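User:
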Amino acid sequence: GMFDPDAVIGKNQRELDYEAIVALDPQVLILPDNGAYEEAIAQLEPFGIPVFVLSGYDTDHFASQCETIGQMFGVQEQADTFCRYFT
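Assistant: Predicted structure:
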């Protein structure tokens, strides 16, 4: 699929366009833990936009992150299957 140019929120995970994010009125912003998540939290908190931080390489939190993502998107069964496969 193609990306909607109106939905671009920055150059990368460290250079975010907070005005664009706020304009999209998301329920949550998901960032990797090597992104600008601390700045994003500070910038978006006044707008009621929570920031969820993921670590794709930190295996200590893999199971809990799978569970949380499953709950966030209403796909708990698939998330559990995915987690069991990798663990």
